[in-house]
Amino acid sequence: MPENPVTTRDDEEPVLRVTGLDVHYGIGRKRHRALSGVSLEVAPGQAVGLIGETGSGKSTLARAVLGLVPAGGGSVVIGGEDVTGWSRRRWRAFRRRGVVQYVFQDPLRSLDPDLSVQDSLAEPLLLRGESRGAAREQVLEQLERVNLEPDLLPRLPGELSGGQRQRVAVARALVVRPRLIILDEPVSALDAANRVQILQIIKDLRDAGTALLFISHDLGSVAGVADRVAVLYQGELVEEGPAGVVLRSPRHAYTRLLLGSVPTLHAPSASRQQRQALRAQL
């Protein structure tokens, strides 16, 4: 564990507070520890980048925060409410309030293929009892916020490009005005031009006061967005701190391994021998 969990600004109550979170899969001899004692916080207007290899526990943490997998220990507090161990019924009501939203890596997982963009964006508002007129106004507002034209509203997800679908997914998360958005690898499937557009939208959300948990293995994207970085390795939080500090001067061997695997304009990625040497320190 790092010396301190990911912390908020001193004068603000965190929107998300995860404390000592444990998650296990399976039972008996097949019991697998997915997360162990993970603690982090995200404040309003703060973006925390959560990085690690595939299988490190990043998506499991997101799913645990959203109540999609049960916590085996510890607690999750969102917007001042302890949501640990809630029933499906309580979670359903909480999600409809729109406090927290989730943006998937693949927007086709979150967008109904049979619903138009208009209907998909308006659906959460109508479920909350808003009128169709009020819902349409908010849909148009959020569509503009993610740089999409209104003429896309009648289209189905399958009729959009990958970048357009991802922006629709972000707009759907925004339409309920959440306090916290969890973004799970939101740009990994996009080309460079669309990646830049989505990252700019994410930075604008942060600057507007939304709390963001940005999950990614793409250190370049994290560096451009995150205020703080948390590093997961085999289900444990092994390093955290201001993004510039962690990415320039990593303390943990695993963080150095991740950084050493990324080629830059000035230097190639670490050699196989160098990566093996770093792994030997883990």
UniProtKB/TrEMBL annotation:
<keyword id="KW-0813">Transport</keyword>
<dbReference type="InterPro" id="IPR050319">
    <property type="entry name" value="ABC_transp_ATP-bind"/>
</dbReference>
<keyword id="KW-0067">ATP-binding</keyword>
<protein>
    <submittedName>
        <fullName>ABC transporter ATP-binding protein</fullName>
    </submittedName>
</protein>
<dbReference type="GO" id="GO:0005524">
    <property type="term" value="F:ATP binding"/>
</dbReference>
<feature type="domain" description="ABC transporter">
    <location>
        <begin position="18"/>
        <end position="259"/>
    </location>
</feature>
<dbReference type="InterPro" id="IPR003593">
    <property type="entry name" value="AAA+_ATPase"/>
</dbReference>
<dbReference type="Pfam" id="PF00005">
    <property type="entry name" value="ABC_tran"/>
</dbReference>
<dbReference type="InterPro" id="IPR013563">
    <property type="entry name" value="Oligopep_ABC_C"/>
</dbReference>
<dbReference type="InterPro" id="IPR027417">
    <property type="entry name" value="P-loop_NTPase"/>
</dbReference>
<dbReference type="Pfam" id="PF08352">
    <property type="entry name" value="oligo_HPY"/>
</dbReference>
<keyword id="KW-0547">Nucleotide-binding</keyword>
<dbReference type="InterPro" id="IPR003439">
    <property type="entry name" value="ABC_transporter-like_ATP-bd"/>
</dbReference>
<dbReference type="InterPro" id="IPR017871">
    <property type="entry name" value="ABC_transporter-like_CS"/>
</dbReference>
